[in-house]
Amino acid sequence: MTESFRRSGEYDYDDPQGPYSQQYGYSAPVNPEWPPPPAYEPTATSPLPPVEPEQPPERRRGRARGSAALLAAVAIVAAAVGGATAYGFQELTGKDGVTATGTSTAVVPAGKKGDVAAIAAAVSPSVVEINATLANGSSTGSGVVISSNGEIVTNNHVIAGAQSVKVRTSDGHSYTADVVGTDSSKDLALIKLEGASGLRAAALGDSSGVQVGDSVVAIGSPEGLTGTVTSGIVSALDRDVTVPTDESQAQGQGGDGSWPFQFGGRNFNGDTGSSTTTYKAIQTDASLNPGNSGGALIDAAGNIIGINSAMYSSSQQASSSSDAGSIGLGFAIPVNTVKSDLAKLRSGGRN
After folding, report:
1. Catalytic-residue membership of 187
2. Which of 39, 152, 260, 297 could staple 270 via S-S, CB 3.0–4.6 A?
3. What's the predicted TM-score (pTM) here?
4. CATH: 2.40.10.120, 3.40.630.30, 3.40.140.10, 3.30.450.20. Which one for 113-346?
5. Would residue 173 show up in a list of annotated catalytic residues for this protein?
């Protein structure tokens, strides 16, 4: 039986190692010249990973400064590109305009695409009636608002030779307008309302994507009936339409305010005269009548794809009033032509 206590006097506390000193300690060296071994065996430790030398402060600061300079340069370039883009957009749409350009946008909700009522509700506030006072009478047409401060695109023949121009918006407000620029070679004009603000600008789409058979809506003021809406399809593209550039030829040739033009070698609504210009047009079967000139041709999403410019009315040849009116032959200036001409019109060009 092993005892668990110590008998008195078995060993002395003066020996710090006790009776087991020989078991765990080391014996004295045999050769006194040798150095004494350690009192215990060293504990093995894992080697520490090498420490990379710290970069000099000057070099670190230089790298930080280099990174900051690079970021600053990137920010400057981005700001310049953004500023140039914004400037180009403003120059195209007007300083205070909200006109969408370049690509088509969803003016009407996706679920209402192609809905004539939805398109009319969305775009009608952007189409106006124009009344021009001429030396020998008056002219009535339509126009499309392209900026909230009252820039309006219309046909040149609507305001050609005008002594004064009055505009009525869809909500019944009347304004006096100034002619800013004209381009008879494209039958386009830009007018500006006096004291207007907060108008709803139309969304200018992309006529390059228009296809034959596409549904379209026309809004204008035929015979002074403001906000008249008709619908149809795109009948053809790139039709060569010839129109007069002489102001004396531009008004009243048909006796009812219709505008003369030439298509397929035939004259419609009177004689175009000797001073003419020809442009590529979108043909539509949407009902167009005198007074629709300068109004909007709109796609299924509510974007302006053309400015209505020429239409044939059979009233001259009609033997009765029941035969008068549109016969489904109307033409519109593609909106991309309008957008490419805006800078010239805004600069005050007259020709």
Report:
1. yes
2. 260
3. 0.68
4. 2.40.10.120
5. no
